[in-house]
Amino acid sequence: MERIVFSLMMIGLLTLSGCATSPMGRNQLIMMSDAEMNAMGNQAFLTLVQKTPVVKDPQANAYVDCVASALIREVGGQWQVAVFQDGDANAFALPGGKIGVNSGMLNVAANQDQLAAVISHEVSHVLAKHSNERMSQQSATKLGLGLIQAVASAKGYNSSAMMGALGLGAQYGILLPYSRVQESEADLMGLDLMAKAGFNPTESVNLWINMGKSSGGNQPAEFLSTHPSHDTRIQDLKNRMPQAMELSKKAHAAGKNPQCEDLARR
Ligand SMILES: [Zn+2]
Q1: Contact 93, 105 (CB under 8 A)
Q2: Which of residues 33 and 124 earns the better pLDDT score?
Q3: I need a surface site. Which of 91, 129, 155, 210 has the fewest CB within 10 A?
Q4: How far, in Å, is the centroid of ligand 1 from the Cα of 17?
Q5: Concatenated DSSP letters for the chain?
Q6: Cα of 143 to ligand 1 centre, how many Å?
Q7: Which residue among 122, 183, 203, 222 is the active-site one?
Q8: How many other C-beta atoms can be found within 10 angstroms of the C-beta atom of residue 62?
Q9: How confident is the model at residue 256 (pLDDT cuts 50, 70, 90)?
Q10: Among 149, 157, 132, 133, which Cα is nearest to 5's?
């Protein structure tokens, strides 16, 4: 009986599903609506804000806000930014327009351009609907079905499963890192985005060098070295750098020249 229900559900899901194209031109399976993803992102953010202390230091907040705002101007929409008191060098962005940066990331991202590389990478995961894609791909698993059922029935969310699917599972025992393809896509989209906002795209390479140095095999899921290796990411970024430098030049000519580090100085 359970199997019949399962099959019917899968047929329903596949019928409803659509093939989409990512901003980088890749075919994607997208089965959740934007509204469903945004609701999950908002709920996840609320949970995090309730569980994790936020940094009160106005300079740190102004610095992160400044970098995020310059990127958001290029992307459009309403975004909320929080700096969390957490030593892990991690950051995330969620559907629904949420950005979180851990205080530990500010020790690894050595300047505004490296922080822009982190945030633009995270925002690119959202713009390319990577959580939706991953959830859609996993719809045949218990986790995927559970999520879709929870959303469909509006019974509320299973918090840990939802966090995992949104890439926030490390603290919740569900580790679902983005796929290698998604990571590469976020890297390259992020590179273009930071360049368009007037940041120095070459600093993205230094960010990954710093990430490699700082972690010692202790990186959060989002930045696991197994997900493209740092060397692969760096080479891919370098290959796209001439194009990014052009975008950056255009941004400077248009007067986009973020000066966020002035805000970080004590
Ligand atoms: Zn990523």
Answers
A1: no
A2: 124
A3: 155
A4: 25
A5: -HHHHHHHHHHHHHHH-EEEE-TTS-EEEE-S-HHHHHHHHHHHHHHHHHHSPBP--HHHHHHHHHHHHHHHHHH-S--EEEEE---S--EEEETTTEEEEETTHHHHS-SHHHHHHHHHHHHHHHHTTHHHHHHHHTTTSHHHHHHHHHHHHTS---HHHHHHHTT-GGGGT---PPPHHHHHHHHHHHHHHHHHTT--TTHHHHHHHHHHHHHTT---GGG-TTSS-HHHHHHHHHHHHHHHHHHHHHHHHTT----THHHH--
A6: 21
A7: 122
A8: 14
A9: very high
A10: 149
Q: For this structure, is 36 an active site residue?
A: no
Question: Residue 19's pLDDT is what?
Answer: 78
What distance in angstroms lies between residue 2's CA and the mean position of ligand 1's atoms? Answer: 36
Q: Determine the distance separating the centroid of ligand 1 and the alpha carbon of 200, expressed in angstroms.
A: 20
Strand pairing partners for 99?
81, 93
pTM comes to 0.84
User: pLDDT, tens digit, for every residue of 132-180?
Assistant: 888 777 765 666 666 655 554 444 555 666 777 777 765 555 556 788 8
| pLDDT band at 125; cut points 50, 70, 90 | very high
Residue-averaged pLDDT of the chain:
83
For residue 100, the CA-to-ligand 1 centroid distance in Å is: 13
Q: How far away, in angstroms, is 86 Cα from ligand 1 center?
A: 18
Residue 41 contacts residue 167 (beta carbons within 8 Å) = no
